[in-house]
Amino acid sequence: MSDVEGEVVRVAVVDDQRLFAKGLSGLVDMLPGVEVVGVAYDGEEAVALCRKEEPDVVLMDISMPKMDGISATREIRNLLPRTAVIILTGHEEDEHVFEGIKAGAQGYLLKDSDPEDLARAIETVHAGNTIIAPDLAQKMLSTFEAGRSRSPQLSPPPLTERELEVIRALAHGMSDRQIAGSLGISDKTVRNHTSNIYRKLHIFDRTQAVIYAIREGVIDVEELEYRPPGGQ
């Protein structure tokens, strides 16, 4: 799974439903190139576990006692900026998607996803990219449209054609190197374009770039896939 031969992706599992957590932990531990470093059953345990083990990826439930998954995600990301968080959610929890993104989650996956999708999600966020299940992306788009109908229409900030190409690539989970190769430019130029996009849109990370791309129709929701283009 890892791009570096011999590297193991260290994963923490967090869910207050013990049977689900233990079952998910067993499943993840069987994935090639992945090791489960611990299981937590509430947000406070999750923060303590991450402080001790410093996992590469955390699979995070939302609704939990003591501390919910959104708050735990925020604390973990502040404590360990290099640790990626994938929030596992059911359809009934879609209203929490935006809060999770604000808290720093890099992935959203439905709990009934296939094991192959889970493996690709772990691989994607570990590589520094963003992943959102297409079903959730569609619901995000619907929520954006509902919000638009209740508020004055504002023109989106002007992006150049090249910036639109870059943000489309970001939304598909491509790395800087993949974007540079596909567009025939240097990694540094990609980073410069990305910085300009963030500044113009008042956003701070790739997840927010995905949201913008969906909202403004830069990409179609149906284009979103679990495996980033150019990935193995």
From TrEMBL:
Name of the protein in question: Two-component transcriptional response regulator, LuxR family
Gene3D superfamilies found in the cross-reference section: 3.40.50.2300
Keywords: DNA-binding, Phosphoprotein
4-aspartylphosphate found at: D61
SUPFAM superfamilies given in the database record: C-terminal effector domain of the bipartite response regulators, CheY-like
A molecular function GO annotation: DNA binding
The keyword DNA-binding is assigned to this record: yes
Organism: uncultured Rubrobacteraceae bacterium
InterPro entries assigned: CheY-like_superfamily, NreC/VraR/RcsB-like_REC, Sig_transdc_resp-reg_C-effctor, Sig_transdc_resp-reg_receiver, Tscrpt_reg_LuxR_C, WalR-like
Pfam families reported for this sequence: GerE, Response_reg
Response regulatory domain segment(s): 10-126
GO biological process assignments: phosphorelay signal transduction system; regulation of DNA-templated transcription
Keyword match Phosphoprotein: yes
PROSITE patterns: HTH_LUXR_2, RESPONSE_REGULATORY
Domain HTH luxR-type: 152-217
